Amino acid sequence: MFELVFQLLLFLLSFLLVFGTLNKLRIFNRNLNAVIALVVAFYVISASFLFTEDVQKILAYFGILVIIVFGAILAYTSSGLREKKKK
What we know:
By secondary structure, the protein is mostly helical. The protein has one domain. Helix content is 80%, strand content 0%. It contains 3 helices and no strands. Helix 1 runs antiparallel to helix 2 (30-48). The relative contact order is 0.10.
């Protein structure tokens, strides 16, 4: 059960990262970006079967990094520091 959830989360993470990056770069249209992201996500899933332990370690560190970044953003926004608007 854990491996199924892990594979699904890995698929979603890789798909969303590739799709978001391609949309931000605006090299292709949105439909082609989705197709490319799907292909990359399926490739990541197939490669993760070979390197399951390594991918789990990397995702654990990535999760810790995400928590630290969100904590820093929360601390920054709650401290009252704001960027001055330019006229």
